[in-house]
Amino acid sequence: MPGSLSRSAALVGVIIILMVLFSGTVGLWSGHRQGQALDRLQTASELMRNHMNGDMMHDAVRSDVLAALAARDPASGIDLAASEKDLTEHLATLEEAMKRDQAYKDSPEVTEAAGGLATPMAAYAEAARRIVTTARENPPAALGQLPDFFKQFAVLEESMEKASDTISAHAAELNGQAASERSLAVWMVGGSLLLSVLVTIGAALAVRRYLVTPILALNGAMDRLATGNLETDVPSTGRKDEIGAMAGSVLRFRAEAIERRRLEEELQGEARQAQTRMIQALRDGLSALAAGDLTRTLEQPFPADYEPLRHNFNQAVGKLGDTLSGVNQVVSNIRTGSAEIANASNDLSRRTEQQAAALEETAASMDQITSSVRTSAAGATRVSDSVGDAHQHASEGGEVVARAIAAMDAIEQSADEIGQIVSVIDGIAFQTNLLALNAGVEAARAGDAGKGFAVVANEVRALAQRSAEAAKDIKRLIGVSSRQVGSGVELVGQTGAALERIVGRVSEIRDLATQMASAADTQAAALGQVNQAVGEMDRTTQQNAAMVEESTAAARSLADEADQLANLIARFELRGRSAGLRTLAA
Questions:
Q1: Residues 474 and 422: beta-carbon distance below 8 Å
Q2: pLDDT, tens digit (0-9, with 9 covering 90-100), for 125-153
Q3: DSSP assignment, residue 212?
Q4: Rg (CA), the chain
Q5: CA dist 368 to 77, 170, 316, 356, Å?
Q6: What CA–CA distance (Å, rounded) separates 99 from 122?
Q7: Whole-structure pTM value
Q8: CB-hemisphere CA count at 13 Å for 269?
Q9: CB neighbour list of residue 215: distance below 8 Å, 6 or more residues apart
Q10: Residue 501's closest CA among 353, 367, 398?
Q11: Is the separation of the CB atoms in 312 and 255 below 8 Å?
Q12: 415, 417, 430, 432, 479 from 467: Cα distances, Å
């Protein structure tokens, strides 16, 4: 680590602060992007549910119109006023759903498709209100308006299907975007945390390798020199920083100590005593230095030849104190950086947990929507089954009416045959009357001999006249009966035609109910896919939270390493800084 230790310590602190800022920025950016994607997906889900509600109201309006037409038959048991009330409510709900679709502005395609619903919606609502109003005053005229109503229904249904496809495609696109945002967030957060951990660990290892280990080695060398082992190798002499300068001072001290030992053998008398005092002072200074006291300096002057030795010792102690002060600043920066990393990781963990809770609530809402749609699908299936039963009963009624028409035709034919028989009886009575008249004429010609025959002829003539009158009465009654039978045949025929129309309408309702059930099943499947996607986002967010906890643990480990380094530095007593070091070590 070339250069000044102060600059190196400042560089390490700046790197740690930059990594903290980088990790926090990436976390905030990822959380913001995921929150936006979640909001857009939730808005699209609400739009889809609103459009589904509008689609159900669109079918409900048609059912209300058909119910209003069926209400003209008292046997149906349908209240026209209730049908009109239901129609008003369903139209209001449908119009409100269309307004909500048109208010959605996040997609130009959805806005355009929703805007295309206004005209067919107004025409469909107007046709529905008109036919229900007409059904109250003129039911046949209302039936005549039914084709136009179904035409408007088909136009609106086609527009709503296009809008539904557009909304589904938009929701699928948002779901894909959310998945992409989730993957990007995982990579960005994971990469930033991994980079922060690696940089922090690298900084700690660099500090241990280039600062702590050389200081400990130099301290050991000074301990051995203090005990008189002048053959000890001095480490870190090739370094260009404060530690290198301190090692150079120790190296010069060793050389001077060796020279001093040589001179001790030569000095005698007072010189030897002065040297002894100097050696004792050096021994005390080295003992204090070995004990970690960097505030002890050699104040008493040495002999002129050894005065540079005293200055070198004092200079070495001062530089060592400055070096350890720089190490103290590095330790402080490391602890500050690790604390900021831990705080940022805790904040990111809390925000991730909040996002996970929001996703969990969204998943629960999607489960409720899916359950509601499945319930609607089941109801539509039951309606389809009920309409099928009604179609079967109406078909059976049509068959009964057909048999009644056949029986009335047989009765009418029998009445015609009886009329023919009566005509024959009338002819016989006319011929009998002629024969009796001729017999009376012949009896008058016979005189007294023909009186008895004349009496018989008169009786036969009277019987023929009564038979003719009876035949006329029977013919008149048969004519009246034939007209009544003909009227009954006509009425039964109209009944059969009405039943055929009812069977047709019930068949249409059955087909429409089947389509509604199929559409509801499809929508339930689509919501199930959206629900699955939201669940996947929830699991990914939980994984992010686990990764953040691992980063927090790494930051705490770095703080523990900084504490250990502070404990090592606390062994030294520095001038004006010993209290700070002891506090840091504590």
A1: yes
A2: 898 888 888 888 888 888 888 899 889 88
A3: I
A4: 57
A5: 36, 22, 77, 18
A6: 12
A7: 0.41
A8: 1
A9: 243, 323, 324, 327, 568
A10: 398
A11: no
A12: 20, 19, 9, 10, 18
